[in-house]
Write a structure and sequence with these properties.
- The complex is a heterodimer of chains A (110) and B (113).
- Chain A is built from no helices and eleven strands.
- In chain A, the strands form two sheets. In chain A, strands 2, 4, 5, 9, 10 and 11 form a six-stranded mixed sheet that branches. In chain A, strands 1-3-8-7-6 form a five-stranded antiparallel sheet, with no helix packed on it.
- The relative contact order of chain A is 0.35.
- Helix content of chain A is 0%, strand content 55%.
- Chain B contains no helices and eleven strands.
- Classes of the chains: A mainly beta (110), B mainly beta (113).
């Protein structure tokens, strides 16, 4: 079992819709969770951090964490074509090591 | 503007040659990292450093070497011992270690001919 699992996609959503990106992890000791956005050919950029159960909102982005079920999700409201990118989920586990998933490719269609 | 500068952006190398990738940051961050990214794979940690003159191996350190003589600089050498060096190399930094809030440079794409 991979430490961090993401559906590779592509996830296709129409402009203006809500995009829902999901991530599961295996380390029950994981404390901190992160979402990075990576445009094709570019480097990753941190867009959200979440440290406790529940929701965290930042503009059009909402991160949701459920430690009991070992999943973290990212919702993007009012999706725009500029949101088309690969979204990497990452977490720091019991060894404080940052582990990345392979990413979900999001396509926002006009 | 503060940030991380990687150079070169593109590099071609013949088999058997060592190459060094530069990474410089002016964010005053203590920790620096090198990751490798291959198509369809996540980022894999090569080396990291939490303080000057100290660094630790990551998950895939074989065939690579680093130094951390200055807080601002963390160069990566890809040696001829690295069997499959063609990849996208990413340098990152964080205010301190043990955090997942990383700032990345633009990356260096190495191709072995």
């Amino acid at each position: 079992q991979k430490e961090v699992e993401q559906n590779s996609g592509p996830l296709s959503v129409p402009e203006g819709a809500i995009a829902s990106l999901n991530c599961t992890y295996s380390d029950r000791g994981s404390q901190s969770f992160f979402w990075y956005r990576q445009y094709s050919g570019k480097s990753p950029e941190l867009i959200m951090s979440i440290y406790s159960n529940g929701d965290k909102e930042d503009g059009r982005f909402t991160a949701q964490l459920n430690k009991a079920s070992q999943y973290v999700s990212l919702l993007i409201r009012d999706s725009q074509p500029s949101d088309s990118a690969t979204y990497l989920c990452a977490h720091t586990g019991t060894a404080s090591k940052l582990t990345f998933g392979t990413g979900t490719r999001l396509q926002v269609t006009l | 503007d503060g940030g991380i500068t990687q150079s070169p952006k593109y590099l071609f190398r013949k088999e058997g040659q060592n190459v060094t990738l530069s990474c410089e940051q002016n964010l005053n961050h203590d920790a620096m990292y090198w990751y490798r990214q291959d198509p369809g794979q996540g980022l894999r940690l090569i080396y990291y450093s939490q303080i000057v003159n100290d660094f630790q191996k990551g998950d895939i350190a074989e065939g690579y070497s680093v130094s951390r003589e200055k807080k601002e600089s963390f160069p990566l050498t890809v040696t001829s011992a690295q069997k499959n060096p063609t990849a996208f190399y990413l340098c990152a930094s964080s205010l301190q270690g043990d955090t997942g809030e990383l700032f990345f440079g633009e990356g260096s794409r190495l191709t072995v001919l």
